[in-house]
Every structure is written in structure tokens, then in C-alpha cells.
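Example 3.
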Amino acid sequence: MRIAELSRRTGVPVPTIKYYLREGLLPAGELTSPNQARYGEAHLHRLRLVRALVEVGGLSIAAVRDVLGALEDPEKSLHKAMGTVETAVAGTGATTDDEVAHEQAREFVTRQGWGYRPRSDAFQSLVSVLATARDIGLDSFPAQLDGYARAGTALAAQDLDYVLSAPTKDAAMEVVAVGTVLGDAALAAVRRLARREMSVRRDRGEREPGGPGSPERECADDDR
Amino acid sequence: MRIAELSRRTGVPVPTIKYYLREGLLPAGELTSPNQARYGEAHLHRLRLVRALVEVGGLSIAAVRDVLGALEDPEKSLHKAMGTVETAVAGTGATTDDEVAHEQAREFVTRQGWGYRPRSDAFQSLVSVLATARDIGLDSFPAQLDGYARAGTALAAQDLDYVLSAPTKDAAMEVVAVGTVLGDAALAAVRRLARREMSVRRDRGEREPGGPGSPERECADDDR
């Protein structure tokens, strides 16, 4: 297919596709004349991956390049590929020298029985959030972390099972590359849905939501 | 204090502070001469809030303005303020007309016994993620949602308790305004820490992490 069809089938504008080609995120098409190239299903699929990482994940072009590079490395173990993706997703968060926040984070991972990896992106990211909370005066924020650990542990097990359930290594690598990004976005949306549900019920003076089975209803009286 | 000190104490560059002033995110200081203003502790605190929303939350200026507006409205209930913050945080996600994804999301909220609010930002956000997953061919992605619901429900209860535990309504409003953003960032970091921990242990052939209590150790043999 030509670039116009690639654009139509993915919803990505032609100038954007050309940008991705120039940046090496998409391999070149097959030149059929000096100014025309043809693209196949592999390009289509790759372009969809790129779009997911950019639009849902908000990754920079450089980060997308790292993630795609991990996908293409046949020597790469799943574990190392996940490390590459985690670093790319974490982005270039500013490191902070807030020692109290660092200590809070260290105490937290220790309390969970996890390894203390102060140079890892995830740890630095946590320190950064804790430093911000201290800055604003949210002194009780660190107390939230243990609840996050319970949820985070359950989700991590689910994430890894999802990766390992893929039928082939290539498919598993794709789950690693995109699953993290989609999973974080889906969880954020689900958490908001749950908060909204709970907030509505508390606001009406109802009890907390219980298990599944409540009848479906459209909430016409909500203001949005 | 003058603007230079405001900058020094918050780490926000002077041109950025002036930008926030022009955009109305910060109230003007007290003019002591035609070209000089003085700022107080309230400005300091406000600037820290703005920076948290922008840097940790990645909110646009318009979204920050909405959130701060909710904070300042004395008539606003906590429930409505949370709604304003949720909308601002959700951002201007593209809506999608993928009917299958919409149906997947509808089935999901129904299965959880939650209200079906198709016009809400959270629901649209979920549809968008599901549409992207379908696009890439991650057909088993919707099966991840029930696990997210369990985590999301527990976290939502924790989030609301955190808001309601604030000593004053003003403090509660601040938790609503910034807590969501910090909480999402903290959860993402904690989830990555948990995934890393689990992946390392599986990679080494060890059993899954158990409860708290493992001795603290620095992981010198990890590659980062």
C-alpha cells in the first residue's frame, strides 16, 4: 500500500508518518520509483505500535526508539527487555536531592522486603513524588504507600503472567513493549471509575459498593 | 519576599514564575514600586501546588487553572471538586468510535456493578485504551481489567479515606487537587518497583516475594 493508505488505515497523518520514517521509528518502504514507496502489513503493525507508545504512553521519540530496539534484539531476554521498557517509560524525571524523601522511599522498599536499588528509575521516580508531597506539606502522604504496595504487588504478578502467557517470544516482547503503557493507562481510568462510583455513593449516603451483580443502570441524574 | 527569592525557594525559574503570573495561576504580588512586587508564604505554597500539578501531573495550564479554581470555590462540595479535578487530569483524550471497545468497557463496568456513564472522561479514557489494544492485536488485554478493578476499588477507598481524613475542608480540597496526581505517579513507580522485584526473582528462579520482613540488601549484582 502507499503512504496515503497507511495513513487512512491507522489514522496517523501523512506528515507524521514521514516524520517517523525520518526518525527511524518505521523502516523505509520498498521504493517503486524515486518518489514513491510501498508499505506492507508489517509497516501497518509497527506504525500502530508507535502510535500507541506515543499517544497512550506519552513517550518521547527517543524513548519509542529504545523500546522498539528492545523488541528487535533477538538476544534480549524478557527480563532485560522489561528493564529497557521501564527505563523508557520512566522518562527523564528530574532527580532530587531531598534526603528525607530518599529515606522515606528506602524505608518503604525495606518494609516490603524488596531490594534497595537507589539508582533505578522507579526508585528515583518514587523519591521525586515523595519530595513533591513534602514540598506541598502533605505530611501524611507516605502513609499511602503501603496500600499502593499491596495493589502494586498484585498488579505486578498479573503483568508478568500476562507477558508469560503470550504464545510466542515475539508476542511476549510486544506485550512487554506496549502492555506496560496500556496497563498504566487502563488502571488510571479504572481507578477513576472506581473513585467516581464510590464518591457518588458516599455523597448520596449509600453504602460502599459490594461485589458484582448490581443491575446495570444509566445514571441520568449525574451532572455529567 | 521578592521574585528572586520565590524562585530560589521553589526551584522554579523566574521567567516561569512570571509566565504563571501572566496566566493567572498565581495571584499578583503586592506592588512596592511600579516594577517590583513582594510575595508571601501563600504565594510560595501556591507556586508549589502549581509546580506539582505541572511537573508531576503533566497538566496543561488550562487544566491547572481549573483545578485551582475548584480549590478556591467555597461553595464547592468535595464530591464536585473531585469531579473537576478528574476532568482536568483526564485531559483532552481523543474519543474513539470503536464500538467493540465501547462494548467491552460497558460490559466491564456492568460486571463490576458500577454505573454506566458513557460520557464521563474516565469511561472514554478506558474505551480509548481498549481501542488501542484491539488495534495492535492484543486480544487478551480486556481480560486484564478485572484485576485492575480489584486494585482500583481498593485504591479508590484509600483515596477517599485520605481526602476525608484531612483536618479541615481547605486541607481536604488540597488533597483532592494534588493527591490524585501524586497518587497516580506514586502508584506507577511502586508498580514498577514490584514488577522489577518479581522479575528479578523469577529470572533467578526464586520464589515470589512473600510478606514483609526480608532483610534489607543492596543489589550490587543488578546491572542498574
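The beta strands of chain A are 30-33, 36-38. Chain A has a mean pLDDT of 85.
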